[in-house]
Amino acid sequence: MKVLFAAAECAPLAKVGGMADVVGSLPLALAEAGIEVRIILPYYGFLGDLPKSEQPVWTGGAMFQQVEIYEARLPGSDIPLYLVGHPAFANERIYGFEDEAWRFTLFSRTVAEFLWRGGWDPQVLHCHDWHTGLLPLWMRAMPVMTVFTIHNLAYQGPPLPYFRAFVDVPYDTGAWNPMVAGIIHSDAITAVSPTYAREICTPEYGERLDGLLRGQGNRLSGILNGINTMALDPATDKHLTVNYDTTSLERRVENKLALQREFGFEVAPDRFLVGIVSRLVDQKGFDLLAPLWDTWMHTSGAQLVVLGSGDPFYEFLFRSAAERYPERIKAVLSYNVPIAQRIYGGADLFLMPSRFEPCGIGQMIALRYGAVPLVRKTGGLADTVFFHNPIDEEGNGFLFDRYDPTNLLAMLYRAEEAFRYKDYWRRLQLRGMEADLSWRASAHQYADLYKSLIARLG
Ligand SMILES: Nc1ncnc2c1ncn2[C@@H]1O[C@H](COP(=O)(O)OP(=O)(O)O[C@H]2O[C@H](CO)[C@@H](O)[C@H](O)[C@H]2O)[C@@H](O)[C@H]1O
After folding, report:
1. What is the pLDDT of residue 171?
2. Which reaction does it catalyse (predicted)?
3. Is the CB of 335 under 6 A from ligand 1?
4. Does residue 20 have a pLDDT over 80?
5. CB of 21 closer than 6 A to ligand 1?
């Protein structure tokens, strides 16, 4: 079975958020299940040091441009990685600026040309989010089946008339943007968790596409993301002060103390340390915190460290809170993997109050590292975090349902209270750390899906 992944991000090489984690780790699990999988990605300027073929393995034209494809390997694996080279990708960014739509159309079109002209002959092309949404449409004339995965329905790409200016889009497509094209023209649509697959069929979460999605019947399914449990392992993570696992959890507190020291907080094991690692955008629900700072800080002993970047509104929200409570709140407004890992490996609680969350990778890394998640019950958060019940000792975290600051505050108090009971807390952490968060089960679901599609190829 031959499968090609096409995406704008792939960890650890090119990452803005969780889609990169999926594209960089699901192929490893698929390869283990015996599938021949390759990845195709833009050759971004910051990938200059990655070892790759000296000469392009394919050269061609797309959108009146000359494009070249180089071959490399996904780091730490044998998985072939195609890199689409063109000056438009040579700068140091993945998203943003006025040429964003043009760049990803060029990327998609190059993938189409590469396949049309026999660069490789996968049976399945697995596309991810709007950046690759036109590919299922273009692949309709090829004996290749397409899977379109929705990582985030909120980003749909520009309207289709925009593309018509420089690329062929058959006129009867019915699609008005690339997200819609991916939904209509793929052979199977997946969302990154079962709950999100159901939610996007409702007006509340459907981003105006709920009617279209409801009409897709069983072409749409939800397959829960996993994480790369080999790479994300507190027993070997080199960013941590102290490594630990389920048999040596008592060592973890050293990471917490180091984190408190690093951020100038009072260094005290009994202080409740809350961590956030996130893109700072509307989706993530941090506006719920805005009215809570004073009440929360005056009525609890919690410390908060936030790592994230994005929308200036949220950067300002956290920066001003940190200025107001410098000894209790710290905001690091950047993208920084070592600090992220130190938060996962040292915080007591991991906060993710998302307005909506297709799956969420952050809460899974937190579980793996023994940071207890407090999340809003939505999307993949509802599929991975289960309420901590101290009576019968079930569950692995804390959830609140209604999108409302007081509900969040009540749950913050409840978590801090639970933290006082050390034995219970330890067992709560262990339940999270012991869960299987790997790709194993979901990779098999994808493999079954590919198989059923290939069977239709005849
Ligand atoms: N400042 C920072 N520094 C370092 N690391 C940072 C960081 N900010 C975020 N990260 C990392 O980026 C990833 C975030 O992934 P998430 O899945 O939680 O959200 P995201 O919205 O980006 O992904 C979208 O796609 C994924 C994949 O399908 C879905 O799970 C999710 O719900 C959907 O919104 C985590 O690995 C996190 O550690």
Report:
1. 64
2. [(1->4)-alpha-D-glucosyl](n) + ADP-alpha-D-glucose = [(1->4)-alpha-D-glucosyl](n+1) + ADP + H(+)
3. yes
4. yes
5. yes
Q: 210 C-alpha to center of ligand 1: Å?
A: 24
pLDDT over threshold 70, residue 212: yes
Q: Nearest to residue 199, comparing CAs of 315, 354, 320?
A: 354
- How close is the Cα of 338 to the center of ligand 1, in Å? 15
Yes or no: say if 414 and 299 are a contact pair by the CB < 8 Å rule. Answer: no
Q: Which long-range contacts (CB under 8 A, 24 or more apart) does 87-93 make?
A: 89/42, 89/43, 89/44, 89/45, 90/43, 90/44, 90/45, 91/44, 91/45, 92/44, 92/45, 92/46, 93/44
> Is the CB of residue 382 below 6 angstroms from any atom belonging to ligand 1?
no
By most ligand atoms within 8 Å of CB, the mutation choice from 21, 309, 335 for ligand 1 is 21
First to last CA, the chain: 14
Q: Is 272 left (phi over 0), alpha (psi -120 to 50) or beta?
A: beta
Question: Greatest CA span in the chain, whole angstroms?
Answer: 67
- Is the distance from the beta carbon of residue 22 to the nearest atom of ligand 1 less than 6 Å? yes
* Cα distances (Å, whole numbers) of residue 21 to 8, 28, 229, 417: 12, 11, 11, 33
Distance CA 348, CA 343 (A): 9
Radius of gyration of the chain (CA): 22
* Protein residue with its CA nearest to atom 2 in ligand 1: 335
Token code pair at residue 96? 């943003």
The answer to whether 371 and 395 are in contact (CB under 8 A) is no
Tokens standing for 267? 């260094």
Order the strands of the 58-62 sheet from edge to edge: 58-62, 65-73, 80-85, 36-42, 2-6, 124-128, 145-150, 188-191, 220-222
| Predicted model pTM | 0.95
The bridge status of strand 80-85 relative to strand 65-73 is antiparallel
Which among 89, 100, 102, 104 has a CA at the least distance from the CA of 135? 104
Distance, in Å, from the CA atom of 82 to the CA atom of 13, rounded to the nearest integer, reads: 13
User: pLDDT per residue over 100-123, tens digit each?
Assistant: 999 999 999 999 999 999 999 999
With the most atoms of ligand 1 within 8 angstroms of its CB, the residue from 361, 365, 367 to mutate is 361
Q: Are 416 and 272 in contact (CB under 8 A)?
A: yes
Whether ipTM > 0.95 holds is yes
